[in-house]
Fold this protein.
Amino acid sequence: MRQHLLKPDIGKKSRKRVGRGNGSGSGNYSGKGMKGQKSRSGGGVRLGFEGGQLALIKKLPKMRGFTNIFKIKYSIVNVGALSLFSEGSVIDSKSLFDKGLINNTKTAIKILGDGDITQSLDVRANKFSKSAVDKIESAGGTIKEID
């Protein structure tokens, strides 16, 4: 009767005891082979050691500076490229992607002021340069900054 036990009676594998004679299956050299640095007590080499050869970590250049993980990557579109669109059209990431001006709809968009624009457009983007705002508004268009 084992009903008073709280835990179920499951088997536990005992650890391997090395160096306890040949009858144990791990006698003589205790699974470490014959002689050498790795057979000794406390033996072995440090992480990255390559037997005296110049280690990979020493061959690589030193890391300089840092990478800002919070940097926002913008897809750049110039005002001159917006001349592809017809008068009064709404320009957003989807329409820019359809015309092939950007590669990805998920990245933020910044409109820069290089080039000229004649038609009035409703432009929606994440960022605008001052010159781009001036050129779009002087052509009769509107801008809207989205998040």
